[in-house]
Design goal:
The chain folds into 5 domains: 197 residues, Galactose-binding domain-like (Jelly Rolls, Sandwich), CATH 2.60.120.260; 79 residues, Sandwich (Immunoglobulin-like), CATH 2.60.40.10; 279 residues, Alpha-Beta Barrel (TIM Barrel); 97 residues, Immunoglobulins (Immunoglobulin-like); 276 residues, Beta-galactosidase, Chain A, domain 5, CATH 2.70.98.10. It contains 10 helices and 58 strands. Helix 1 packs parallel to helix 2, helix 3 packs parallel to helix 4 and helix 5 runs parallel beside helix 7. The longest helix has 15 residues. Strands 47, 48, 49, 50, 51, 52, 53, 54, 55, 56, 57 and 58 form a 12-stranded antiparallel beta sheet that branches. It has an 8-stranded parallel beta sheet with strand order 29-28-27-26-25-32-31-30. Strands 3-2-5-11-8-9 form a 6-stranded antiparallel beta sheet, with no helix packed on it. 10% of the residues lie in helices and 38% in strands. The protein is mostly beta strands and 972 residues long. The structure holds 1-methylethyl 1-thio-beta-D-galactopyranoside (IPT). It comes from Vanrija pseudolonga. InterPro entries: B-gal_small/dom_5, Bact_Beta-galactosidase, Beta-gal/glucu_dom_sf, Gal_mutarotase_sf_dom, Galactose-bd-like_sf, GH, GH-type_carb-bd, Glyco_hydro_2. Its EC number is 3.2.1.23. One of its GO terms (biological process) is lactose catabolic process. Keywords: Glycosidase, Hydrolase.
Amino acid sequence: MEVIYSPGEHEDPRPGREGLPPRAWVDRTDAQQLSLNGDWRFRLSPTAAVPGGDEFAKVDFDDGAKQWSDLPVPSHWVLHGHGNPAYVNIPYPFPVDPPFVPTENPTGDYRYAFDLPKDWSLGDGKTVLRFDGVDSWCKVWVNGTLLGTSSGSRVPVEFDASAALLAGSNVLAVRVHQWSAGSYLEDQDQWWMPGIFRDVTLLHRPEGSVVDHFVHVEYDHKTGGATLKVDAKPSGRVVIPELGIDAPTGELLHLAHVEPWTAETPRLYTGHLVTAGERVPLHVGFRTVAVEDGVIKVNGKRILFRGVNRHEFHPDTGRAVTRETMLQDVLLMKRHNMNAVRTSHYPPHPHFLDLCDEYGLWVIDENDYETHGFEQLDWAGNPSSTPLWKDALLDRVGRMVERDKNHPSIIIWSLGNEAGPGENIGHMASWIRQRDSSRLIHYEGDKTCKYVDMYSRMYVTHAEVDALGRREEDPLDDPELDKKRRAMPFILCEYIHAMGNGPGGQAEYQRLFEKYPRCQGGFVWEWIDHCFIKPTTDGRKYWAYGGDFGEEIHDGNFIVDGLLFPDRTPSPGLIEYKKVIEPVAITRADSRRVSIHNNRDFASLDDLAFTYRLERDGRGVAGGPLAVPSVAAGHTVTVPLPDVALSHSGERIWTITAVLAADTKWAKAGHEIAWGQFPAAETSPPVVATSSSAPVFDSATGVVTLGPAQFSTTTGQLTRLGRLPVTSLQLDIWRATTDNDRGQEYFEGICWADVWREANLDKVKHRVKRVGIQGNAFVVETRAAAGSWNRGLVTTYTWTAEGGGVRLTVKVVPDGDWGDMILPRLGVRVGLPASLSRASWYGYGPGEAYPDTRSGVKLGQYGLSIDDLQTPYVFPQENGSRIDVRWADFAGSEGGLRVEGVPHFAFTARRWTTEQLQAARHTTDLVPGDNVWLNIDHAVNGIGTASCGEGVLPEYKLRVSETEFSVLLRPT
Ligand code: IPT
């Protein structure tokens, strides 16, 4: 056959061609730069073979033709009307046929005409063209001259453009294929989004400019001294005036005293590297990273990661994120007490790392490498274990390390994520070790820890973390490897899966990290929900996830699993995490003293100011500053509580708060860091009022009247309370399942949502057995039972009049075989008029809380509209429960309702039913109806994190048992 076309270049598993050797990335030097970001010309073709071949790269090619349009660079073309983003988690969206990819391969041709500034000296040195990120493969021409090709979406490439550039006007042309051999190495759990999505820059490299430089530091915590050596090619001088340094490169400099860099104290010394041709800024942070005594130490101290996995994401621009967005992420992390970030699962835009250096975050910088789709093939042909891919893997890990090697914030290199085992993992690790021995190596997929410096796992149960803490985990077959691994530090590179409502069980993990030195914390999965805005047919906006773009293969809302909603508003999960990882533990020492423990690794609490507040039944009675002496890291002080005269009644609660004493780079003075709340005195039990009137039965109407309440004798249900018509008050055990309910518990292998559905718990019918009057009480006996099954809950509602309202006592007796069933909730629900618009309550708030997600809420008095009680999870599900409520008022234009607990209850109030919430797929499916549906819960099942991880811990499971609870309902 005479071959006239055979695709290929982009299916070559080897690294791209003609890229310059990778080097340290520098934002700005005194050498000239020209940003080529802007509106480029763009044409999309359906296959890699574009008719006309490379013609489009020629200078005089007509890009005004109708197939061409403008496209901003950086961006993903699928977010600009050319095709769609597609979300798949683990499987490849194309046949696994490595290194080949489908012929159907969206291909973007880009052209950009630009003028070289007049003072750009082409004759002096070189000019290089840098792409910081092109997804997934590109071929680059300048003025029709081919410069080279590149693979590796999230690592930079530089080409020498000197010979191709002209003074005056130039034309840059780039061909980008969505799919390439490299796509096999980039199977991360995220949207597939091609394009030139990071900056494009032209860099003048004058004669004698820095080809590369490597800042080596060591900090000696025993002496407070440090060493510094800056290797540079060509050699030059290192100038750091603040340290009195003006010395040649390559020389080991001993410094008698420096302030070390830590995530808590991100001290940077700025200076310059000066060579014959360039002045490069230096930001030096002194720190030493080591594994000692089986734990990771920085500057001689064990550190504890309070971390998060960060994908780059913005709902408008995908992974093309601006510096403002990066800064917003860093500020949000710092403001929520985080100290670490894993750059899952690729090196981020370098500006993000600059911000981590500056603001203080420990970084695990991760290679752009994941081959998760091979798992379902038992890893057959997996690049980690196939020699064919060795060079590509060394190429990309090298481009990460070289680019990022001068960041003090990076203390760990990660070889990638979910890429199975194999010797190429070892090759990458060895390469890093010879190049940079100053940092540790991480890879979770190295189960035996043959190549890495720490034992890392994801989504491990609390029980297993406990065993790991004791170094009593199950042994490996190989005793040598087992011994080595058992001696290693342990981290959770991913845990507590922030999908939907939750994650639950955070505090219990933190206690384990605090208990066992080996357990050095973890990184929440993940930072932000990756969703795009889409309109409904009638123009309302919703957050779109997998499948909303017509993808053939997709993983639905598994991409909606962040601590931040897509618009970066914090979710309740983040509020919880902030509290759980707070660096100060404030607890009751005894009735007169508070204990303040500094949970930081390095810094004292001198930057914090403490305040106290005393409340009685949620109303402040006293408050002011609390003097706290200096507390060094790891230490505790006990401080007397202010001498405030306590009243003799009501619930008296101390709240002690630690806030920033002065403005910092990342938050203003007064920003809350930590708090503790505890009772000031025993609360006396509430006085139980006796019932005041008896029920009256009107046989003509069939209505029973009891105080302000009216009941139907046919249904036994409450129909009116004062002015309020009410409906359907009955026992309720169902909740709209959460992502975590729908998950598979790692430990027990149970999916509770499936169990509940099988048990028809969402289809409970109520059979009225008897309705009657017993003394002063109106009594309704029912049997609530789920369709198809013979077990039930015999429920007795006893109503008595009390203090202008009615008291409802519900007794639930299980009937039949419930086995080990747990219930979503146990309480009553009632339909109230839609005119109710506001809730105020005394209980925990202001946000939602469940039994295992309640660290972040405080006891107090709160008020919110019914609409604002909802947590707008992207995928609608149970939400918004307020826990341990003493009383709640629901008010509106046509009368209201007060609910008082005996002593506590939880509530949700919504403008739609649980059934509607269950059926909804997007928030726009939730349309207010004719009622406000109030659930008054005696108990609620926990949340857990089974969407990926452990289920609800036993102590938070709502088991079926005989139960009695009461509430008071009063019209207002
Ligand atoms: C783990 C992945 O590393 C991460 O990218 C993400 O997909 C997460 O799960 C779930 O959201 S892998 C999983 C099989 C434990």
